[in-house]
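Below is one protein, fold included:
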Amino acid sequence: MEHFQIQLTKLIELTGFHEVAVHYDIEGRRVEIFVNEGDWLKRWLPNIVSEFDHIAKLVAKKNGIDAFLVDINNYRKERESIIVELAKAAAKKAAIAKQEVRLPVMNAYERRLVHVELAVRPDVKTESEGVGKERCVVVKPLV
């Protein structure tokens, strides 16, 4: 595992980032990467996280490590919190107004977060609709 962390750190440094810290959470199946690059990085984080996630998974596969998520500067953790709060608000609105609420387009992981979060609610149900990159979650009231 230590070898994998060293490889990821070197890979990030080769991309030009400085002051890199890599932590692999085995139980949470997550790689947390922190880079100190200033405010300009925030604008590019969604793309950087996605691209580096792909590269890191290739390195992990070569090292015999199971699938995991890559998070850079807590971008995914913060995004997950936003998605969960959005799901809760949509469920509340759907239940009170007795109307379905269509959430914005999301990737498969984000849609899964919504489905899991709202699965315990007895007053709403969720369904994914759309095709490809246009898939979203619709929260429907149970009448």
